[in-house]
Amino acid sequence: MPYEGEFASYKPLRRVAESERVRNLLKKAKMITPVQGACALAPCQAPSLNTKLPDYAFAIDGSYAEVDIRNGYPGAKVGYVTVASVLLDLKRIDELDESRPVDPREFRKTEEASTLDAAMPGCNVVTRTHTSALESFREALYENFLDVVVDSEDGRSLLDTYEFLLKQRISSPTACPYKDRADCERSFVVPTGATTCACTNGYPIYSTDALRIHERFHDTSTNGEAFGEVMQVWERVLLIHLLRWFERRELLEQISKIVFILDGPLAMFGHPAWLSPIIKTELTRLNQVVRTQTGSDLLIIGVEKTGAFVTHFEELDQTQTGEPFFPVRTFALLTDKYIKERVIFSTSDKPYGQDTYFGRKFLYKAKSGARIVATMPMLDDAQSDIAGDDVSKYPSFASICGILDKLVSSRFPNSVGPVVTAHSHAAIPLTLGTKVLEQLARALVKTS
Length: 448
Description:
Largest sheet: 9 strands, mixed
Strand order of the largest sheet: 1-11-12-13-10-9-2-3-4
Distance between the termini: 36 Å
Number of strands: 15
């Protein structure tokens, strides 16, 4: 590692590039050409829309930041996690579009935003009577789930929804958070609520320990990965929390008027990945109720902004003649075989994303020309089979394409408007935002 302000010269870079070992490695690497990928994929015309589009779009996006604080210990940090939800009145937007130019004040009324915010201990920040930053982080994670109540009349916290999902988990022992202490159990099934472990010491155990996010936590370095996993869980549990709220209020028959849009794929990665199949099961159950009452499926879309699939779509759509490979309003439903051969190389017999995805991935070229990499939920056994590309198994697919056509944003390339709006509320600016958070952190430390 270099010293602060020390920069590498070009000589090592040239030496590495010309190294015989590097050349030999590249000779061994598997190679495919974009043409091979293009030949294996045939864009299909999007189905015609024969139903009314939703009146509302509900988007969820999150952000996190880690800032330094001064508490007397070197390298002390605090993590801030924000998840924003934005409700857009699409029907009102259409009405305003009919009489341009649109009054900005009226347009702002079509958007309602709210945020869930949390401050969490990072490296070298120990709270209360805890003996380590790790123990402080675990308690804060549980309390933040407990504190989030989306509807005060309903009174249910995000922890209620998370613990409902936890109860659906087949008994699976989790390594004890105190496994480094010789007198504590090595593993056990984490119960709901805040309890104590079975050993004579009675160490605190929290239901959120089952997420195993604390295993990403470091007492002596940055914890961006841990805070990223917290954000990921909050986004997806919030989606289920909202759908269950509709069910408790007996409003599922009205839910076809809303499309839910999540930043990122409909999946769960890392230590909390065990939640993914449980979320999939709960979505299937809720969708059965919706199908019975409305005759249609839940409208949920995950939109990816970056990653291997976004890069693949960009490369795929560029041909030697200069003409795009995907005409407007065409799509490709990605199969397990295609993904493993052309995007994420694998020889596994297990279907791609079986343990992490609760959605089916597809590429869509909107009528504006925007390239969208998205996922739609798997809501029954037929939709969960990604071996084939029969789009008729997804009765809401025509609506999803129509929604993407309508919501594509001109503010950023290949972006979806509600996600852009949600991100604007959730994003913490890297300069001004961190300075504000640093001041807040100092104030909180002084107060405590």
